[in-house]
């Protein structure tokens, strides 16, 4: 890449992991100036490309590490489980390639810091795939909190939905998914932190009505150093007919706002300042072919690859989400408030 060039240079990407990566690939094909030249999957064969919007000239590799070492690419998209992520991160670091890492950053706090150490040579070029924070309603709310609304002091939210989990799946592996709160609830936890800052402590209760290897439902309170409070309910149990998720309501120093979601997408923002008698509203564009819930985050990553800038969803954000998920699970188990480690710990 040539950050000093007047014309944007084509960005050549290698994507690892086609089970979930197919959704990222769909978004990438709609971003101008991006070419996915190489794909890697442990089960790589032509059958796996059926139903995937792969560029016709993309090369398919069964060995992801070899692809990262040898392919003519500018950056890497990792859509693999944390279980197999370590050697791939090390390969990216050895070659100095920017890398987009799907959430969760890791399966547990120890692994999270091991991954950070592997990425030390490229730490400023690593982005964690917290797509929610890049949705237009969240970005607008972040600007409002920095402006007329002032800082958020109270938040109430929900991210609970139907997900047909089995007890033997990768989700429960402490080196892989790390449980419901770590693998999926991290999206809402990250948005709360993006809007309110780094929590100081967490206290939670959890339920496991289907006797899974870990709890599926949780009620969580986060406390912030300046005194702010967030209360959220999280989980992977419900009914498909209830698709109004995620949701987040905030009371700020000089107003109030609501983020409104449907089916994993923040679709609208409503807000009002203290003296307003009518709410203002922003409606985000719907998902369409080539524009998905992942597009804005991937566009940001591509911009950072071109410019050399540090992504706005960093390794530190990934570690914080893992720490939060495991602290709330520990709090639910032992019934006490859990202090979070300071940044860099």
Give a structural overview:
The protein has 345 residues and is of the alpha/beta class. The chain folds into 2 domains: 138 residues, Rossmann fold (3-Layer(aba) Sandwich), CATH 3.40.50; 172 residues, Dihydrodipicolinate Reductase, domain 2. 28% of the residues lie in helices and 25% in strands. The chain has 9 helices and 15 strands. Strands 14-13-12-11-7-10-9-8-15 form a 9-stranded mixed sheet. Strands 3-2-1-4-5-6 form a 6-stranded parallel sheet, with helices on both faces. It starts with 10 loop residues before the first strand and ends in a 6-residue tail after the last strand.
Protein traits:
345 residues; alpha/beta; Rossmann fold; Dihydrodipicolinate Reductase, domain 2; 2 domains; nine-stranded mixed β-sheet; six-stranded parallel β-sheet; 9 helices; 28% helix; globular
Strand portion: 25-35%
**CATH-defined fold name of the largest domain:** Dihydrodipicolinate Reductase, domain 2
Mean pLDDT: 93
- In the CATH hierarchy, the architecture of the largest domain is 2-Layer Sandwich
Major sheet details:
9 strands, mixed
Number of strands: 15
Low-pLDDT stretches = none
CATH class term of the largest domain: Alpha Beta
CATH superfamily of the largest domain: Dihydrodipicolinate Reductase, domain 2
What's the Cα radius of gyration?
A: 20 Å
Structural category: alpha/beta
How many distinct domains?
2
3D shape: globular
Distance between the termini: 34 Å
């Amino acid at each position: 890449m040539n950050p000093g060039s007047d014309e944007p240079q084509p960005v050549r990407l290698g994507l690892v992991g086609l089970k979930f990566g197919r959704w990222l690939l769909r978004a990438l094909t709609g971003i101008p100036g991006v070419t996915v030249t190489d794909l890697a999957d442990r089960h790589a064969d032509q059958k796996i490309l059926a139903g995937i919007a792969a560029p016709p000239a993309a090369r398919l590799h069964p060995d992801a590490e070899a692809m990262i070492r040898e392919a003519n690419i500018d950056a890497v998209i990792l859509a693999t489980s944390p279980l197999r992520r370590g050697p791939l991160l090390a390969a990216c670091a050895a070659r100095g390639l920017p890398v987009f890492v799907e959430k969760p950053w890791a399966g547990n706090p120890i692994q999270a810091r091991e991954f950070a150490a592997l990425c030390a040579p490229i730490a400023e070029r690593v982005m964690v795939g917290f797509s929610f924070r890049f949705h237009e309603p969240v970005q607008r709310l972040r600007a409002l909190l920095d402006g007329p609304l002032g800082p958020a002091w109270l938040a109430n939210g929900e991210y609970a939905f139907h997900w047909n989990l089995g007890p033997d799946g990768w989700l429960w592996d402490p080196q892989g998914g790390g449980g419901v709160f770590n693998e999926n609830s991290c999206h809402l936890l990250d948005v709360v932190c993006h809007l309110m800052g780094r929590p100081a402590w967490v206290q939670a209760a959890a339920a496991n009505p289907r006797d899974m290897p870990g709890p599926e439902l949780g009620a969580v309170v986060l406390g912030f150093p300046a005194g702010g409070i967030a209360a959220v309910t999280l989980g992977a149990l419900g009914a498909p007919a209830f698709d109004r998720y995620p949701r987040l309501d905030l009371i700020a120093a000089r107003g109030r706002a609501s983020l409104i979601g449907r089916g994993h997408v923040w679709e609208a923002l409503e807000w009002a300042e203290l003296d307003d008698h009518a709410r203002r509203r922003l409606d985000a564009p719907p998902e369409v072919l080539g524009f998905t819930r992942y597009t804005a985050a991937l566009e940001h990553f591509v911009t950072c690859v071109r410019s050399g800038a540090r992504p706005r969803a960093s390794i530190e954000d990934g570690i914080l989400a893992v720490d939060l998920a495991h602290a709330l699970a520990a709090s639910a188990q032992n019934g006490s408030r859990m202090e979070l480690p300071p940044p860099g710990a």
